[in-house]
Amino acid sequence: MITAARGLDAPSAAPAARSSALGGVRREDVAPEGGLDFTQSAFRFGVTAEPAAMMGGGLCWLDADEDGWLDLYAVNAYGDDDYVRWTERGGLPRSALFRTCAAGSRT
């Protein structure tokens, strides 16, 4: 997961040119080592204008089990047009709660 923050500057008259270089930033998928196995299911079968599919997914950090460690809750989504396809494949997409253990892994 990569996070970044930026102040609220006034917009310039023209957007700055974007560079494709990451400026020394290295991306690495560390989800498997952390015990995270989750796939967002919206738009799996194509793009849709359904609000539930576009805005239904997300995630949040919370201490769900009140053990002092932040847990990760990942919300899944799907479009109504995909309901039949999902049920034919074994069921609707599920959201997931990953509890953080003291060792730093998630279950």
Q: How would you characterize the overall build of this protein?
A:
- The chain has one domain (31-107).
- The protein is 10% helix and 12% strand.
- The chain contains 2 helices and 3 strands, in the order αββαβ.
- The protein has helices at residues 51-55, 83-88, and strands at residues 58-62, 71-75, 96-98.
- It has a 3-stranded antiparallel β-sheet with strand order 1-2-3, with no helix packed on it.
- Strand 1 (58-62) and strand 2 form a beta hairpin.
- The chain starts with 50 loop residues before the first helix and ends in a 9-residue tail after the last strand.
Instruction: Please provide the ordered H/E string of secondary-structure elements.
Output: HEEHE
What is the global morphology? Answer: globular
Q: Give the overall average pLDDT.
A: 77
Report the β-strand fraction as a percent range.
5-15%
Strand pairing plus helix content: what structural class? alpha+beta
The number of helical segments is: 2
- The residue fraction in helices comes out at 10-25%
Q: Tell me how many strands there are.
A: 3
Order of strands, main sheet, comes to: 1-2-3
Q: Biggest β-sheet, characterized?
A: 3 strands, antiparallel
What is the distance, rounded to the nearest whole angstrom, between the alpha carbons of the first and last residues?
17 Å
Overall structural domain count? 1
- Uncertain regions: pLDDT < 50 for 5+ in a row? 1-12
Radius of gyration using CA atoms only:
18 Å
